[in-house]
């Protein structure tokens, strides 16, 4: 998506005036031209953004009012957000929906647990239209609106080994670009820019900003305010999903009752939200995810392999070493390391 694809059609007068302010702001921000694919990124509060995403971030900052009961799922893209949303939605709404008629069977998890900065542009009254209190965001901690950080709501953060995150991001980004422009590119171009993308990921210059600063921002905040955060790792969820589903329910203040545990509800939720189950649903095989007027994704782009360690099929030992060294350098000093599950 290039800045030229932004248009202000179909906006209300209020949105038109916000949009004008937004384009004025854009012209003042540091800009990074990317050639392959051709996108402009803008730096705002230390993170690089695609313009449309930044427009949503600013709207969230200006308009979103969190409630103390909100549960915000946060994570850098491709770290397990879709899975975590499905699990939290299933936990939060388990009294309303049984397993056979669950909305997760007919909806992409992103349509049930909206991404704040995406949804707010389509639907400014995002809170009023939800029947539960689980929301999500890719926004960095330091850019969250005050109402989230001060309202008492809870944040569930998910992170993932950066080597697998990068590989997943690379495939997704190439694919979404192909889908988002008519000129596109081709999935067969994959190797041509793999090394360039790798360097940009290491430098934090991706269309989703710096992975390192994202994890660090939330991790540091979680050390300061442990009650406000549940910090999860994708690898931990893979290793013991039932344990983490129970932990999530306790954290969300809706623990499973003895009867529910005897009925095997946590196990049923894990099964319903597994990669095999979700990726096999018709909606996730053939449906589309509408992001905004000029950007649509195939639902199946959110389900690729769902494995730990796929990086071994894509990164050279030198690339893996480089990522591990950056992780140790950027996060090790705070006592954080990737890959190992959080202690039960
Ligand atoms: P998003 O940020 O665009 O929402 P996100 O869901 O965080 O993406 O990450 C997608 C990754 O989670 C994909 O990983 P892969 O590319 O390495 O395969 C996707 O396959 C994986 N994923 C999606 N759903 C599940 C699931 N139910 N269980 C395990 N992994 C999953």
TrEMBL record:
The keyword Transferase applies. It comes from the Eukaryota. Keywords: Transferase. It is an enzyme of class 2 (transferase). Residues 68-335 form the Sulfotransferase domain. Belongs to the sulfotransferase 1 family. GO terms for molecular function: transferase activity. This is Sulfotransferase. It comes from Penstemon smallii.
